[in-house]
Description:
The structure is a homotetramer. In chain A, helix 3 crosses helix 4 and helix 5 (about 60-75) runs parallel beside helix 9. The first copy, chain A, is mainly alpha-helical. Chain A has one domain: Orthogonal Bundle (Tetracycline Repressor, domain 2). The first copy, chain A, is built from eleven helices and no strands. The model of chain A has no long low-confidence stretch (mean pLDDT about 90). The first copy, chain A, is elongated, with a radius of gyration of 19 Å. The interface of A and B includes residues 171, 173, 177, 197 and 203 of A. Chains A, B, C, D: This is TetR family transcriptional regulator.
Amino acid sequence: MSDMMDTLRNEKNMTPKQIDILRAAVELIAEKGYYNTSTSEIADRAGVAEGTIFRHYRTKKDLLVAIVTPVISNFSAPLFAEQFVAQVFREAYATFKELLYAFIKNRFEFAQSNVPLIRILLQELAFHPEIQTVYKQQFSEKVYPALNQAIDFYKQKGELKDMPNETIIRTIVSTILGFMMTRFMLKPDQNWDDEAEIKQTIDIMMDGLGKV
Amino acid sequence: MSDMMDTLRNEKNMTPKQIDILRAAVELIAEKGYYNTSTSEIADRAGVAEGTIFRHYRTKKDLLVAIVTPVISNFSAPLFAEQFVAQVFREAYATFKELLYAFIKNRFEFAQSNVPLIRILLQELAFHPEIQTVYKQQFSEKVYPALNQAIDFYKQKGELKDMPNETIIRTIVSTILGFMMTRFMLKPDQNWDDEAEIKQTIDIMMDGLGKV
Amino acid sequence: MSDMMDTLRNEKNMTPKQIDILRAAVELIAEKGYYNTSTSEIADRAGVAEGTIFRHYRTKKDLLVAIVTPVISNFSAPLFAEQFVAQVFREAYATFKELLYAFIKNRFEFAQSNVPLIRILLQELAFHPEIQTVYKQQFSEKVYPALNQAIDFYKQKGELKDMPNETIIRTIVSTILGFMMTRFMLKPDQNWDDEAEIKQTIDIMMDGLGKV
Amino acid sequence: MSDMMDTLRNEKNMTPKQIDILRAAVELIAEKGYYNTSTSEIADRAGVAEGTIFRHYRTKKDLLVAIVTPVISNFSAPLFAEQFVAQVFREAYATFKELLYAFIKNRFEFAQSNVPLIRILLQELAFHPEIQTVYKQQFSEKVYPALNQAIDFYKQKGELKDMPNETIIRTIVSTILGFMMTRFMLKPDQNWDDEAEIKQTIDIMMDGLGKV
DNA sequence: GATGAATGAGCGTTCATTCAT
DNA sequence: GATGAATGAACGCTCATTCAT
């Protein structure tokens, strides 16, 4: 949980009450959804007067955006900018499989620490243009180009089948998202051998997408 | 659209007004979400008095359930009961790949005719226990057992890798859902060669899940 | 009071509750001002649920406009269009003084029956652009042109001093308004000999503005 | 503007911040009215913390009273006490017309320098008993008696018609107020020949009220 | 003296639901 | 069966005021 608040604390200085508000809002919205959570409930759980919420966030929607924006940024952070692409080209990963493994491990841990945040993102994305804007920009400007370059690179090395990058990306994203949603949201209480499951999932993807 | 109303008309006899209400509700809820759609808006668009809605549906929630329940039933209908499993055992499909193809083609067409309904299901599932109950029951009692039996069958025939059925199912469902959501909801306006895309997707799944 | 409601009922069909709401709103706003009157108070006094107000008036401001607009129209109604000017030219009034007398008598009675409405108009005009718009349009398109034509007419007949029409109008309006506000708002409880006071006021204006 | 602050600075010693607060409050309240101006806005414009306002004025209403009271005092100051009446009896003004001219010139200049303050007084008088009390006391104890004595004096000299003093006062006040409100508030941007307009207005009053 | 975070009562408004017609 | 006026609880939000620093 403290981990989760780190994701949100990307901002400069927050008062303790502001942190309480964020934490309460995340808990309630993750559990019941944005429209089923009233600002008075959030204030109650945060141990704060309702007006205090609006001192820190102009509107309830602003509060939601303050929760969701850092998740979008952080989730795709590893793909950012030169860092990621540079590593690929510097051959930091011997194979695409190794890259995939490193990537999934890293994002798996992030997801694990931020389940409520990611749940909110997934649940509310459909309803709030404000979030969609942030998401689309992040995806089209950061995530997609980075993945695209990496895939081109490994295609040239002959490691990936000759099919549209978009299909490859869609398959990878669907598979990873499907795994993580099952793992953390649908059946979090099942006994999971995470390491085995990740490896299994990567094997499937590599067999499906990789060249023999 | 008439197709979509067929999906909903599974019920007994509906008056024309009731159909108008359902159609209006589907359009509005698909576009703006359940909580952003008021019953007065629905009544307006349906050309009906607000009270009339409550003559047919006790509550607004009931109306939502009336929309979503048939989608859940119909989407998994082909997997229902003996029919599907019987066909598998009767070797109606020469290979798992053929089964997959038949299944996806069929569900693709259903999805195409019911985009707004499916959008509503996916968007609202997270927020309404009433829907979750229906969904879980349908999945655990119908979908999962059917898929399970089929997968066991093809495993014995040596067509599928030796991995947990749950992993196989999760991969298939994720990949198909990822494809259909991209196709119909995220990028519906892109130029799609549906037949090629479906075949491509099946090839990936077969390479990933199938035995060489 | 029933007279006052006539002024407001210019609209088509109003339900009894809507009339109750208007009456309550007029009473409270006249007494305490728009910003000191809450919609819940209005609902209470009208014997109506608060929501009922918003069924008839989209916003609180709309309610105010519904009160004030008819007052503006009705107060200047006698000056409207051809009727008034035509009468002047047809020499329905032998002298300017007679015209003034007829006009003041008539408006005096209107004011007497609509004190709360006029109080609201005068009090709120300064704060609500919505009202100002209606007022300015009415004054510049109806009131001012009518007075202007009438004054020109009596100037040519040699009954009025040669001074700018605007000065004449300002003097007349100030004097009449000053009288009526004193009579009905500042000292309504003083013993007034209305007929004498009106005649006196007209004499003053005629001596001040008329040619010897 | 510095002139306007002089009107308000009648009080003891004011810190620079207090002056900033007053100035900001006057600007905002004159423009938007008391109820449309929040203390936080005033603090913002004054460059002061919100709490600072309440260090100098116990309540927001106190702040309003601090603005409006000096206007009331100053506007009627020339009529104050013995000074004015003594001058009249000492025959400092040859005629009532001269008195009127001196009075109007003087008050015109005061009004010109204090438009925002007077606007606030006129706009808010109706809504705040605290202001009404100050106003009534000032008028009934200072303004009215002074005017009354002066009018009696000139009546005895045969310069004024024989009509109730109250009617005379009402006419004068209405005419002057009507002129000044038109000049400074309704049409401040029109081209005005102030000297001519004042003389014209006095001529009208004298013809209307004076004996031939 | 000055600050500004915190308060909480109160506001205007929405909307699912009821019910007399 | 259908209507739509009426309801009232609940909501997001504002703002004058307080008080620890």
